[in-house]
Amino acid sequence: MSPAMRIACLQFNPQLGNIAHNLKRAETIISRAEIQDIDLLVLPEMAFSGYNFNSVNEINSHLEPTAAGPSTVWARSTARRLGCYVALGYPECCAHPASSPLGSMSRYNSAVLVSPKGNVLVNYRKHFLFATDELWAEEGREGFFSGDLPDGLGRLAMGICMDLNPRRFEAPFEKYEFAHHILDSKADIAIMPMAWLTSQPAESLVDQAQVPDAGTLRYWIQRLQPVLDQGGQGQSGETIFVACNRTGTEGDACYAGTSAIVGVSKGNVKVYGRLGRGTEGLLVCDVPAPGKDSATKQE
């Protein structure tokens, strides 16, 4: 471990249903960046399948068995090669015994976390579903994830995209479900693979590719208000929030990019780094490991 924790977000534009292309694109971005000594690499929600599937029939051929499909294979291989933790999203299928009251198959919008040795530590199932998810996926019943990371990286909270919002946009805005989970779990770091949409026109992904979507970043930070009010409950008093989003378009869906690594403590927000709305690349930031100082860089 270096004196700080080095986190990388891989933001790119996956093609819907083209797993081979998307795997190759991610490898190209990593190889060009020549990253070294990172502790954690985060990729977007449903990183290699693409996101905007409109039915069970559309997504069925792209579903992956629990922590055992091409996304997890890539994560394990990359984790061993780079010597870091890897987190990414994928569409999960889980077969049940014939006697199960759930039926023969469940489908989830999921994320895995893999250790530097290539071991799967977490298989998290998205708890709050977006409207697109509801067309094919079940809600994860276990709630948001929290757990301890080895190697001095502290306590982790994990969600996926819509988990940051009020449940079904029906819960009161001020309920702040995921932010309170961060506080309750005393998380030092919260990671969130995303396929977050933008309200800006698709042309802005080209015309303003290097410019972050300020409204999106502002909203993410707003959804962490209880952490800002009370301060991070982890060892350092600061919670590192890692939002790894995708960019590009899929049909009418236009994604906001703007992957960001943000520190939130009582009364203070520090943006360690963020990418543009249309950028494909790696954001690499050095942030405080619990109780330590920090520096920042982008590659």
UniProtKB/TrEMBL annotation:
SUPFAM superfamilies: Carbon-nitrogen hydrolase (SSF56317). Keywords: Hydrolase. GO terms for molecular function: protein-N-terminal asparagine amidohydrolase activity; protein-N-terminal glutamine amidohydrolase activity. GO terms for biological process: protein catabolic process. It comes from the Eukaryota. The keyword Cell membrane does not apply. Gene3D superfamilies: Carbon-nitrogen hydrolase. Residues 5-289 form the CN hydrolase domain. It holds the Pfam family CN_hydrolase. This is Carbon-nitrogen hydrolase. It comes from Tuber borchii. The lineage of its organism: Eukaryota, Fungi, Dikarya, Ascomycota, Pezizomycotina.
